[in-house]
């Protein structure tokens, strides 16, 4: 039966797409002073996928979306809403509309959502509300980023971390509710810890009238502050989401965190008493793909047969803003 509070929700399809070109740690050591051992020990990352100048965010996002739609066994014309979670659109005005066009999802309204590495989790919560209230039946959520565009490749503290990619899921109205609970948070007082900031210079148009014009500067990050923030706040927000879902950690089949740093994944799982074999991790091969990291890891685990129908997943994103959040859901319809 449908919940009295609204319609049930199921996540029925997943898809992903990454560039073909990889840059491993040894290759990166030719760019900055580092080594495979140094990067691997501190982050768990061994390689990352990078988009070339001809590849667009829409290219990655559209292919990931097509794969998710195919798994869900619906048509693009069945989609009511497309949400693109990204911090690196092809167009500053938004790229979701271009993806809608490429997919042929002629009935869908489309918009971008920006919450950095928390974007996919925030997108799940946003999509769920449209379904819960009965407004839409089929929602396509895409997490995609090409942060290689915005990395300072001479900054060893950040260039070792990021990769490019896209992941997507289809959420559908369902008689059986699989979306069990969530909690999302923001703290702007720590905004300076992780930035991709605009920097402008004064330009005088006429005497007495000036404007600012410039561009976005490369990513800057206080790695120690972000680490401390993540290991403290992420377990807390997952526990709150589990409380809302009325579920204990023992009932969680998979812990699916934003793929930022293996040390963070390990610390969070230990805090929650979730064994390592229940932690989904693929950052060794992809690095930090920002809003793409959770759906990319989910799709890989589903297609490998690790995540099975009905498995309960605790997913959490965290990053710039600062923002963080968690959702508890069961895979499949």
From TrEMBL:
<keyword id="KW-0511">Multifunctional enzyme</keyword>
<dbReference type="InterPro" id="IPR004655">
    <property type="entry name" value="FabH"/>
</dbReference>
<feature type="domain" description="Beta-ketoacyl-[acyl-carrier-protein] synthase III C-terminal">
    <location>
        <begin position="244"/>
        <end position="331"/>
    </location>
</feature>
<dbReference type="Pfam" id="PF08545">
    <property type="entry name" value="ACP_syn_III"/>
</dbReference>
<feature type="domain" description="Beta-ketoacyl-[acyl-carrier-protein] synthase III N-terminal">
    <location>
        <begin position="111"/>
        <end position="188"/>
    </location>
</feature>
<comment type="pathway">
    <text>Lipid metabolism; fatty acid biosynthesis.</text>
</comment>
<keyword id="KW-0444">Lipid biosynthesis</keyword>
<comment type="function">
    <text>Catalyzes the condensation reaction of fatty acid synthesis by the addition to an acyl acceptor of two carbons from malonyl-ACP. Catalyzes the first condensation reaction which initiates fatty acid synthesis and may therefore play a role in governing the total rate of fatty acid production. Possesses both acetoacetyl-ACP synthase and acetyl transacylase activities. Its substrate specificity determines the biosynthesis of branched-chain and/or straight-chain of fatty acids.</text>
</comment>
<comment type="similarity">
    <text>Belongs to the thiolase-like superfamily. FabH family.</text>
</comment>
<keyword id="KW-0275">Fatty acid biosynthesis</keyword>
<dbReference type="GO" id="GO:0004315">
    <property type="term" value="F:3-oxoacyl-[acyl-carrier-protein] synthase activity"/>
</dbReference>
<protein>
    <recommendedName>
        <fullName>Beta-ketoacyl-[acyl-carrier-protein] synthase III</fullName>
        <ecNumber>2.3.1.180</ecNumber>
    </recommendedName>
</protein>
<feature type="region of interest" description="ACP-binding">
    <location>
        <begin position="259"/>
        <end position="263"/>
    </location>
</feature>
<feature type="active site">
    <location>
        <position position="288"/>
    </location>
</feature>
<keyword id="KW-0012">Acyltransferase</keyword>
<comment type="subunit">
    <text>Homodimer.</text>
</comment>
<dbReference type="GO" id="GO:0006633">
    <property type="term" value="P:fatty acid biosynthetic process"/>
</dbReference>
<keyword id="KW-0963">Cytoplasm</keyword>
<feature type="active site">
    <location>
        <position position="117"/>
    </location>
</feature>
<keyword id="KW-0808">Transferase</keyword>
<dbReference type="GO" id="GO:0005737">
    <property type="term" value="C:cytoplasm"/>
</dbReference>
<keyword id="KW-0443">Lipid metabolism</keyword>
<dbReference type="InterPro" id="IPR013747">
    <property type="entry name" value="ACP_syn_III_C"/>
</dbReference>
<dbReference type="Pfam" id="PF08541">
    <property type="entry name" value="ACP_syn_III_C"/>
</dbReference>
<dbReference type="GO" id="GO:0033818">
    <property type="term" value="F:beta-ketoacyl-acyl-carrier-protein synthase III activity"/>
</dbReference>
<dbReference type="InterPro" id="IPR016039">
    <property type="entry name" value="Thiolase-like"/>
</dbReference>
<dbReference type="InterPro" id="IPR013751">
    <property type="entry name" value="ACP_syn_III_N"/>
</dbReference>
<feature type="active site">
    <location>
        <position position="258"/>
    </location>
</feature>
<keyword id="KW-0276">Fatty acid metabolism</keyword>
């Amino acid at each position: 039966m449908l919940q009295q509070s609204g319609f049930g929700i199921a996540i029925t399809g997943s898809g992903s797409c990454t560039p073909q070109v990889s840059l491993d740690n040894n290759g990166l050591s030719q760019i900055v002073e580092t080594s495979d051992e140094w990067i691997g020990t501190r982050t768990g990352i061994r390689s990352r996928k990078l988009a070339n100048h001809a590849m667009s965010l829409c290219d990655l996002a559209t292919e990931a979306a097509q794969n998710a739609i195919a798994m869900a066994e619906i048509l693009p014309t069945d989609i009511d809403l497309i949400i693109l979670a990204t911090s690196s659109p092809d167009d500053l005005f938004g790229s979701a509309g271009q993806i809608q066009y490429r997919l042929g999802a002629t009935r869908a309204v489309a918009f971008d959502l920006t919450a950095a590495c928390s974007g996919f989790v925030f997108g799940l919560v946003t999509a769920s509300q449209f379904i819960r209230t009965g407004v839409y039946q089929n929602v396509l959520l895409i997490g995609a980023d090409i942060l290689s565009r915005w990395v300072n490749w001479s900054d060893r503290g950040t260039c070792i971390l990021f990769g490019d990619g896209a992941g997507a899921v289809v959420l559908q109205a369902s008689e059986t509710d699989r979306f069990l609970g969530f909690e999302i948070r923001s703290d702007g007082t720590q905004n300076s810890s992780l930035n991709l900031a605009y920097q402008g210079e004064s330009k005088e148009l006429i005497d007495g009238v000036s404007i600012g014009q410039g561009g976005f500067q490369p990513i800057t990050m206080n790695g120690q502050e972000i680490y401390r923030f993540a290991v403290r706040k992420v377990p807390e927000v997952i526990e709150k989401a589990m409380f809302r879902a009325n579920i204990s950690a023992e009932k969680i089949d998979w812990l699916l965190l934003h793929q930022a740093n293996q040390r963070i994944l390990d610390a969070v799982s230990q805090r929650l008493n979730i064994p390592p074999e229940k932690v989904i991790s693929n950052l060794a091969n992809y690095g930090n793909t920002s809003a793409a990291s959770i759906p990319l890891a989910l799709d890989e685990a589903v297609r490998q047969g690790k995540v099975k129908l009905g498995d309960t997943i605790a997913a959490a994103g965290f990053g710039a803003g600062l923002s963080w959040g968690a959702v508890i859901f069961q895979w499949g319809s």
